[in-house]
Design goal:
The complex is a heterodimer of chains A (115) and B (110). Chain A is an all-beta fold. Chain A contains no helices and 11 strands. Chain B is an all-beta fold and 110 residues long. In chain B, strands 2, 4, 5, 9, 10 and 11 form a 6-stranded mixed β-sheet that branches. Classes of the chains: A mainly beta (115), B mainly beta (110). The interface between A and B is medium-sized, with 22 and 20 residues.
């Protein structure tokens, strides 16, 4: 199957700082990638759709100025959590669909802790 | 939007037992995937099954698209099968978005 990587796997930062998370499709090209957030013992919540070469599309209730998304190439999307606060602490996961079948593959996730 | 319901929410088994997990969805779909989220949070693709039946080792899945449900069968369960199983669906159209169910937490005891 296709491989999606994320970096870093875990990050701890102080309140008010910004954190960048990278999502890469390693063996396929992805014009679209997705960013999810998951709280403990809950399902995945879609935050935004990252589109290569154009602006991201955010789900209702997600602050686009806080969660900046850039999809600069066919294999890389980044999520920047700006001015992070403790309530932003969560598990962030990215995914990318293969163009042939639409089957989605997920990265291993990034656990963000804001102190 | 489309609704996805998974049952049961929790399931506890003894090693070696069989189980069936169910996923109901409220509208027609052209993509349905089953995932296993391991204890480290990684979602593992189990099946891409918008319709029909597939088998992979001890796991198999069946989707009856006309009746809007899918079943995941786990036979001879092992402790390593523990974790959360998610069903996710995509409606027709060019949008790739998946809608997830709330998951089934499976615990397999030795």
């Amino acid at each position: 199957g296709a491989v999606v990587s994320q970096h870093p796997s875990r990050v701890i930062c102080k309140s008010g700082t910004s954190v960048k998370i990278e999502c890469r499709s390693l063996d396929f090209q992805a014009t679209t990638m997705f960013w999810y957030r998951q709280f403990p013992k809950q399902s995945l919540m879609l935050m935004a759709t990252s589109n290569e070469g154009s602006k991201a599309t955010y789900e209702q209730g997600v602050e686009k100025d806080k969660f900046l998304i850039n999809h600069a190439s066919l294999t890389l999307s980044t999520l920047t959590v700006t001015s992070a606060h403790p309530e932003d602490s969560s598990f962030y996961i990215c995914s990318a669909p293969t163009r042939r079948t639409y089957e989605q593959y997920f990265g291993p996730g990034t656990r963000l802790t804001v102190t | 939007g489309i609704q996805v319901e998974q049952s049961p929410p929790d399931l506890i088994l003894q090693e070696g037992a069989n189980s069936t997990l169910r996923c109901n969805f409220s509208d027609s779909v052209n993509n349905l995937q089953w995932f296993h989220q391991n204890p480290w949070g990684q979602l593992i693709n189990l099946f891409y099954i918008p319709s029909g039946t597939k088998q992979n080792g001890r796991l198999s899945a069946t989707t009856v698209a006309t009746e809007r449900y899918s079943l995941l069968y786990i036979s001879s369960s092992q402790t390593t099968d523990s974790g959360v199983y998610f069903c996710a669906v995509k409606r027709g159209g060019s949008n790739y978005k998946l809608t997830f169910g709330k998951g089934t937490l499976l615990t397999v005891n030795p």
